[in-house]
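Model it.
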Amino acid sequence: MSPRALATALVCASLLLLGAAPGGGGPTPPPPPPRSSPPPLPARMADTGGGTQLITAVAPDTGATAGTLTWWDLRGGRWVRAGSAPARFGAKGLAEGAVRRQGTNTTPTGLYDLPFAFGVQAPPRGTTYVYRPVREDSWWCQDNASRSYNRWTEPRPADCRAAESEHLLAYRTQYAHALVIGFNYRHPVRGRGAGIFLHVNGRGATAGCVSVPADAMRRVLAWARPTHRPHLAIGTDGGRTAITRY
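Modeled.
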């Protein structure tokens, strides 16, 4: 080996010992640490209702009529997704629940309890919620002048006009299975809105409810446990109605 070749070989060997390739600028940096996954959505919310089950209904923004419904379980202090499905919202999008007005075809944002379930069809296998069968004389009163405002009635009372109420049996597809959303329910405010449910999809956007495919609605009812105090949070990805605010 010539003196020049020997010198070149010694330089290359020295560089390799230092952990650098010939012509490199120093040791090879270590790979970046793996990115940690963000906390699950319920863990980022201001309130989840205090129970160990939660349903979230999220839209991209207040003008959207579609989004995602996800149901969660709290296990060992961590929220775990139990299921998910595409969701539909009001034909005019979403509105802050505290200021929403009746007849606007908007879905109210906020965090709500789920008082009871009902349906034209029998409850899905595994349902433990109180489940009311829809009959010919089953109505949901939406008449602001009625003492039964925002209540299930059987039969429809005289002070609740049919034109201002829902005859539940008339919505056999949508109300095959449903859960009452506790919006404006415990202490109803006239003009705020009535008859807001989580129910089966119809032909398109809703009049203010949240709807999902029939199979998803059956899965939710079989999953929900009243003793776990499930709540439903409705909101958007961000902005003033961000679901993380509720």
